[in-house]
Amino acid sequence: MNLILFGPPGAGKGTQAKLLIDKFSIVQISTGDMLREEIKSGSDLGDAVKSIMERGDLISDEIIMSMIEKRITSEDCKNGFILDGFPRTYKQAVNLDLVLKNLNLKIDNVIEINVNEDLLLKRIIKRAAESKTTRDDDNSKILKNRINVYKNETLPVLEYYRELKKLHSVNGMQDIEKVSKDILSILC
Ligand code: ADP
Predict the structure, then answer these.
(1) How far apart are CA 28 and CA 113, in angstroms?
(2) What CATH number has the domain bearing residue 171?
């Protein structure tokens, strides 16, 4: 089974992904984690993406696609995968389908974890303001940028899957167990 977990920062994607990994013996592929690993390892790619990520902007579709293509063809993905943080642009979504088609694979379901946007914004801006590691206004400026990027670049991805009738939305403002239950009732 190949899935996409969709939702803004703070929606609880990580928590739900863990449950699905165990339940279906599939792997989680987080482009954000992969990029952070590259930065940590000090690779050329890591150096190239560091400042872009720090601004809350998106990494180029070309870099992301080549990373993903390599990852989904590895041995541990043969049972299936959960994509987390990808696709994040319309172009990535279209290119993903091309790559999958060549591999005789497809996305089975896209799960959107829905959260009330105002509340989410308040929550993450408050969290940033309380953090002592960076200047407050810097932090909330970056967060606001990330929300804007999400709205402008990433929301069209939802429309893409809605048209393909693959999109399912669950209410992410419920407790963790209830969100899991709702996701499983879509998949099982
Ligand atoms: P979040 O905290 O929102 O879950 P991620 O960990 O998924 O964020 O991603 C962190 C950063 O990594 C993004 O702000 C972006 O700069 C970069 N990134 C991750 N995935 C992608 C992608 N699919 N396309 C472009 N940039 C990405």
Answers:
(1) 16
(2) 3.40.50.300
Kind of pairing between the strands at 81-84 and 2-6: parallel
Ligand 1 centroid, distance to 84 Cα (angstroms): 9
Domain range holding 163?
A: 2-187
Number of domains in the chain: 1
Q: Which of 135, 151, 178, 181 is catalytic?
A: 135
Stated pTM of the model: 0.90
The packing angle between helices 136-149 and 117-130, to 10°, is 150
Residue 146 a catalytic site member: yes
154 C-alpha to center of ligand 1: Å?
Answer: 11
Query: What is the chain's pLDDT, residue by residue, as a tens digit (188 residues)?
Result: 999 999 877 788 989 999 999 999 999 999 999 999 999 999 999 999 999 999 999 999 999 999 999 999 999 999 999 999 999 999 999 999 999 999 999 999 999 999 887 777 777 777 777 776 665 566 778 878 888 898 899 999 999 999 999 999 999 999 999 999 999 999 99
User: Quick check: bond before 87 cis, omega within 30?
Assistant: yes
Pocket of ligand 1 (CB under 6 A): 9, 31-32, 35, 52-53, 56-59, 64, 85-86, 88, 92, 146
